[in-house]
């Protein structure tokens, strides 16, 4: 069974975007971008909510931009090659390489995708991730903790009725002072 991974840049106080919606403090330097590229290349699919999908569409054409750095062009190629499912009740269509729209109940669709053979999946976007965390469908949590306190905004994790037991299995500190943490969900 494929694992579902939730990974995003997060502030020290637990937000993926500040009160003003900005997340420019999470922009990766070249070292961190290479690490993201490596992780993205190991995925069999990306699951997005509408808002993050609209942000990530930037990568559909970034490879062709002469001002793009090498790591950005590489990520653009990886992103276009990776199958993407966009969960939205407001979009009528999606565009881009290997991208399809899902209107179905995320729990059914994600359970089906996890049961398929192939590489692991990743979920992006706080709203969709919150739904899947609430359904206990996320198997790994991979926050990239940035050395900034933003004081509020969009939380990385939703409020829960019961705690989730996790096991820390990897850490790494980058020159940019960003700390990567990898936790596995401990069940039963």
What does this structure look like?
Strands 5-4-3-6-1-7-10-9 form an eight-stranded mixed beta sheet. A two-stranded antiparallel ribbon has the order 2-8. 29% of the residues lie in helices and 28% in strands. The model has no long low-confidence stretch (mean pLDDT 92). It is an alpha/beta fold. A hairpin with a 5-residue loop joins β9 and β10.
Largest sheet: 8 strands, mixed
For the CA atoms, what is the radius of gyration?
16 Å
- Number of beta-strand segments: 10
Distance between the termini: 17 Å
Query: SSE order, as H and E?
Result: EEHEHHHEEHEHEEEE
* Neighbour order of strands in the largest sheet: 5-4-3-6-1-7-10-9
Alpha-beta classification:
alpha/beta
DSSP summary: helix tally = 6
List the helices and strands and how they pair.
Elements (H helix, E strand, L loop, with lengths): L3 E8 L3 E3 L12 H12 L3 E5 H7 L2 H4 L7 H12 L2 E4 L11 E4 L3 H10 L5 E4 L1 H9 L5 E7 L7 E2 L10 E8 L5 E7 L3
Parallel strand pairs: 1-6, 1-7, 3-4, 3-6, 4-5
Antiparallel strand pairs: 2-8, 7-10, 9-10
Helix pairs in contact: 1-4
């Amino acid at each position: 069974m494929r694992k579902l991974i939730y990974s995003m840049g997060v502030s020290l106080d637990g937000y993926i975007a500040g009160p003003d919606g900005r997340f420019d403090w999470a922009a990766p330097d070249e070292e961190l971008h290479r690490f993201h590229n490596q992780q993205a290349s190991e995925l069999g699919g990306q699951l997005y909510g509408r808002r993050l999908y609209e942000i990530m569409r930037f990568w559909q054409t970034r490879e062709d931009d002469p001002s793009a750095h090498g790591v950005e062009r590489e990520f653009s190629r990886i992103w276009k090659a990776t199958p993407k499912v966009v969960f939205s009740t407001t979009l009528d269509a999606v565009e881009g390489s290997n991208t399809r729209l899902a209107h179905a109940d995320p729990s059914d669709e994600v359970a089906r995708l996890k049961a398929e053979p192939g590489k692991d999946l990743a979920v992006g976007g706080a709203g969709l991730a919150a739904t899947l965390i609430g359904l206990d469908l996320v198997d790994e949590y991979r926050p990239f903790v940035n050395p900034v306190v933003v004081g509020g905004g969009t939380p990385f994790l939703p409020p829960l009725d019961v705690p989730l037991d996790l096991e820390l299995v990897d850490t790494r500190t980058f020159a940019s002072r960003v700390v990567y943490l990898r936790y596995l969900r401990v069940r039963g």
